[in-house]
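Q: How would the structure tokens look for this protein?
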Amino acid sequence: MAENDSSQEKTEEATPRRLEQSREKGQVARSKELGTSAVLMSAAVGFAMVGPSIASSLVTIMTTLFTMDREQIFDTNQMVLVWSMIGRELAFPMASLIFVIALVAFIGNIVLGGITFSTKAFMPKTEKMNPMKGFKRMFGVQALVELTKGIAKFSVVALSAYFLLNFYFNDILALSRDHLPGNVYRALDLLVWMFILLCSSTILIVVIDVPFQIWNHKKQLKMTKQEVKDEYKDTEGKPEVKGKIRQMQREVAQRRMMSEVPNADVIVVNPEHYAVAVKYDAMKSTAPYVLAKGVDEIAFKIREIAREHEIAIISAPPLARAIYHTTKIDQEIPEGLFTAVAQVLAYVFQLRQYQQHGGRRPTAIPLKQPIPKDLKY
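A: Here is the predicted structure in token form.
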């Protein structure tokens, strides 16, 4: 069928369900360049922070090694002492540097895409073992993009290194004319600044790569119109099933509504098409409220139940339409209809009093209070 044709263009944005499924599979937007740049920059900054400590430790180590006498050199026990001394001098600054790099490497790799853990990503995929598909990946658009990125990275870093060597060339040559410990501190200072500037050049790659990875990830998750329809059917249910459920819900609501009709004080009708069951209970509500309402067949059923239970039926077409269209089930009537409903209820209560105790039969009077314009239907 044409609507199931896989050749349809993927023009629709990924649905929340599609995004959730891709995340469950470990498919999120990632930028390797962001992680690499974060590691390099953290190494450069960390090196700048612990550089003086490392320089001081190197001076101590070199001084110790270069001032050893002949007896110490030939003493094999000195080897253990020398390595212990080197470990003590370099342990703390190197551990601090490694900790900073590891922490930033972790943060840099979760900034884009967040933390995800998926067992599906570990599962072997047979399609990746297909040589033909492997060739397609090697010469596809993604491979071309990665090649372009690699050439761009190499070019940026190579040019940055060239300009930095040119700029610091005389300072590097001057190191050979300095003496300990000054040349060590000066060399580390040059190394730190050159490293920081060189790593900063990768930020240009990151600024381009991060938006590209986000765009590419969204593009890969795009869906065809048919896929969106199929997913909607799977998550929301088929229209015919939903229609059947809504019909059953309406039937249940109608049965519950009809069971409340015998509790009504009056049924206001129009006189055939509309019927509204109204009750006033001072203990439950401050105003009259609607127990049931309906038109045509439902209105007929309400009147039928009312006759069975000897509930007064009052014909007031404008009032019946106004209550029906403005008031929901179990909701109080609008303030604009208070007087009109009060007149009807007063007549019903007088009629009930006459039926119980006799006396003069009340005469039905037309409603004196007009229906407000904003409540007319």
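The longest strand covers residues 289-295.

The radius of gyration is 43 Å.

Upvote if useful.
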